[in-house]
């Protein structure tokens, strides 16, 4: 797929936090029904996409968040953080609005994160994705990730994440 033009990827600023929360909500409610229950979606949105939670992550320097703008309009985001293993970066979030999917922006976000991880001296990029999120698993495979293992993570309130761990080398 040719690299798209007319887009930018840049660090999240404080003023972006509320629009990012709204965008995440829109994408999750469009994408995840059928993969997880709406109750689990609401639970996970409240855990991960409250303005306070994102602001705290940014202020603590725990995670990097980048926004995707297409023709100046907020259309997606990625977040990433140092992983549990040395020299491994975790791609924690990757979301592109449904209206602009399939145009290369997801791949551009992944390459942006891979480049940032290389600059921090990382050898490996990994992520977790729901095993039944087939389209996203396919996109990650296309981006060079391979399934490493499956995990079932208790996230509280009777909810679980039934995920693949996928990883790829950052060697050039
Ligand atoms: C996963 C996601 C970020 C991909 O973004 P995107 O902009 O649509 O992806 P791209 O257009 O850059 O596609 C990159 C490659 O993956 C492939 N791909 C993307 N989505 C796919 C799908 N649903 N099924 C099969 N292949 C897919 C594309 O065909 C392309 O391959 P190519 O280079 O051979 O043409 C996007 O679909 C998304 O936000 N999904 C919903 C949220 C989600 O599940 N996020 C991941 C959470 S872990």
Mean pLDDT: 96
Any idea of the CATH topology of the domain at 7-123? Aminopeptidase
CATH architecture of the domain at 7-123: 3-Layer(aba) Sandwich
The succession of helices and strands, N to C, reads EHHHEEEHEHEE
Q: How much helicity do the residues have?
A: 25-40%
CATH superfamily of the domain at 7-123: Gcn5-related N-acetyltransferase (GNAT)
Q: Between the first and last Cα atoms, what is the distance in angstroms? A: 20 Å
Hetero groups in this structure are: coenzyme A
Instruction: From the alpha carbons, calculate the radius of gyration and give it in angstroms.
Output: 15 Å
Structure description:
By secondary structure, the protein is α+β, with helices and mostly antiparallel strands. It has a domain of 117 residues: Gcn5-related N-acetyltransferase (GNAT) (Aminopeptidase, 3-Layer(aba) Sandwich). Helices cover 35% and strands 35% of the residues. It contains five helices and seven strands; from the N terminus they run E-H-H-H-E-E-E-H-E-H-E-E. It has a seven-stranded mixed sheet, sandwiched between helices. The chain is globular, with a radius of gyration of 15 Å. The model has no long low-confidence stretch (mean pLDDT 96). The structure holds coenzyme A. The site of coenzyme A (COA) has 20 residues, from helix 1, strand 4, helix 4 and helix 5.
